[in-house]
């Protein structure tokens, strides 16, 4: 009678070994998937940081261009104001010259 029990215990041991092997394989798969997920998350984080830096660089470039445009517009206003003042001054002088010529003539 000990032989059937030995066979039963061997089958039971084999059954348990197979179950434990499957469980350990599943645990290894879970660990591998976690590692893959962590790598993917790190890659996405790096990609997001690079995209954020690119957007910040673009914003800085646009702000610099806007500053340059403002500077050019201010310079243009000063040039037109100075030119207008010069024209008014020259017309004023021409008016004085015309008055002097009329008085002499």
Structural class: mainly alpha
Specify the number of helices. Answer: 1
Number of strands: 0
SSE pattern: H
What fraction strand?
A: under 5%
Largest sheet: none
Low confidence ranges = none
Percent helix = over 70%
**Distance, first to last CA:** 154 Å
User: Rg, please?
Assistant: 45 Å
Shape descriptor: rod-shaped
Mean pLDDT across every amino acid position = 87
Q: What attributes does this structure have?
A:
105 residues; mainly alpha; 1 helix; rod-shaped
Describe the model.
The chain has one helix spanning 2-104. The chain is mainly α and 105 residues long. It is rod-shaped, with a radius of gyration of 45 Å. The N and C termini lie far apart (154 Å).
How would you concisely characterize the structure shown here?
The chain is mainly α and 105 residues long. It has one helix at residues 2-104.
Helix-strand blueprint:
Blueprint: H1 2-104
């Amino acid at each position: 009678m000990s032989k059937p029990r030995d066979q039963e215990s061997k089958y039971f041991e084999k059954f348990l070994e197979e179950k434990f092997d499957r469980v350990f394989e599943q645990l290894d798969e879970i660990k591998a998937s976690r590692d893959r997920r962590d790598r993917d998350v790190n890659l996405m984080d790096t990609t997001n940081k690079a995209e954020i830096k690119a957007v910040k660089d673009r914003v800085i470039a646009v702000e610099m261009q806007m500053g340059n445009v403002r500077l050019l517009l201010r310079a243009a206003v000063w040039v037109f104001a100075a030119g207008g003042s010069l024209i008014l001054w020259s017309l004023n002088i021409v008016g004085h010259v015309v008055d002097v010529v009329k008085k002499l003539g």
